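[INFO] parsing input record for Acetyltransferase
[DEBUG] input buffer:
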Amino acid sequence: MSIKRVTEAELAWVNRQYEQIGFMPSKLKNEIIAIVMSQGHYAGVGRLVMLNAHEAEMGGIYILDAFRGQSLAHELVSFLVEESKRQNLKTVYCIPFEELQHFYEKFGFHAFDASASNANPRILEKYHWCLKTYDKNVLLLKLTHDG
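[DEBUG] output buffer:
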């Protein structure tokens, strides 16, 4: 298992995966995108979308069916959390499906009230889009880095 940052040449592969599962496409301009590899094969993808200099959204976490059950999602989220620290981000939001709440809590994410006055407007817009778009319920989670 290894994790690498996506290059321009790999972006088409990333967006094919996202298109298949109904996720928004990625672009490198304001994103840090990571691919998790297993035995030399692309096994999954995830991203940090920069909202501003201090906030990002972690999302697009997807492990291909053939590679599930290998703890690759855990490795990928760990990598992105560490990357958010390297980028000196203060806040990382996440909008996972409800059944993934406990998974994300292991990394320090906690439920965040969408009506809070300090909520990033871009993340609120995406959260409400997800609530309308997906058949499954989604949550708004937040990770805060001190310092």
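[INFO] The mean pLDDT is 94.
[INFO] shutting down worker
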